[in-house]
Amino acid sequence: MEPTRDSHATLVDLLDRVLDKGLVLYADIVVSVAGIPLIGVNLRAALAGMETMLKYGVMQDWDERIRAWEREKRGEKAVSMVSGDGDGPVDATAFAG
Amino acid sequence: MQHGENIRVAPPGEGEAVAKVEGRYLYCVADSGEKVSLGPIGINGQEVYAVPYEDVCAVVHDCPAEPYQSTDAEVIKGWVIAHQRVVDKAWEKWGTVLPLGFDTIIREQGGSGPQQNVENWLAADYQTIKRKLEAVRGKAEYGVQVFWEPQVIARSIAQMSREISSLEEEIKSKPRGLAYMYRQKLENAVKREMEAKADQCFRDFYSRIKKHVCDLKLEKTKRADDDRQMIMNLSCLVDGDKSTHLGEELEGIGQMEGFSVRFTGPWPPYSFVSA
Lengths: 97, 275
What we know:
The complex is a heterodimer.
Chain A: H1 11-20, H2 35-46, H3 57-82
Chain B: H1 2-6, E1 22-30, E2 37-39, E3 48-53, E4 56-64, H2 73-94, E5 97-99, E6 105-107, H3 114-124, H4 126-136, E7 139-148, H5 150-160, H6 162-173, H7 176-210, E8 215-218, E9 229-239, H8 243-254, E10 259-267
Antiparallel strand pairs in B: 1-4, 1-5, 1-6, 2-3, 3-4, 7-9, 7-10, 8-9
């Protein structure tokens, strides 16, 4: 399948990235914008269906659990790479940090 | 916050001239030492240009040292789209960029102008910037979201699970009050099975996707705006020519009954420049 970047269909994906991600600069020469998270929150509230919530509470727990599992897995990988036990040429942790 | 308070500009119409503190809005850092203008393509039509240091540059526009703020979603959307348009332009022109998040503004300070401060920052962080540029060179970010239709999955689980089908059978022969309790039991059993199934799918998809990417970030799942449920939300950093392989893998996942996939990009590497 082909990836899409159609500007209407992927606006949410764009907002997620531009508002919450990107290179962050920590320096006193940067205008400190306490408003950044606020802008994000306001905007999300304004757009229905954008809440980062799951439909079923039971799956919300599951989501937390599976993400904890992944974090753990990444940690293990980092260790196993040191001992030369990587499972392929590319590894999710290879570029981390 | 404190900075913001100090530099409030007088409301329009007030006669007194207030000295504005100058700033530079940052779009991205690019892999070029070229001193060049990109034209009036910035937020609110601002003139965008590159501030070089050695062989890298910051892509900026001139602005007062105040954050862009609004409670109007449409206004913010417009700014974000403009921000992205500039990053795209720089990405297209120079091939490798480190995109900044929205509303990063460098100000003048202690007699040092904002332009000088941008250069000082590039000089001070030069090694880090070079390392990050290398890490994303020739790569792009893709969004991958996997959904399932809970009804379809639940149905297929019910067919597979002996516990569930026997509960369904028992309900039929029970009086109303008891049947209610059985239905509760049934629902719990279905939930349990759904979670186990979600676990299994997640691990399976994760390892299948991981083969085709240089790096990936697990994002929070979101509420879908239809009957579907998102069970996986990833940002993937992918080597230029590998995106077709990833696409083929996702095609396979999307063809499974009850599953669908959203595949977006290529994006500048927003999720892979922070560390």
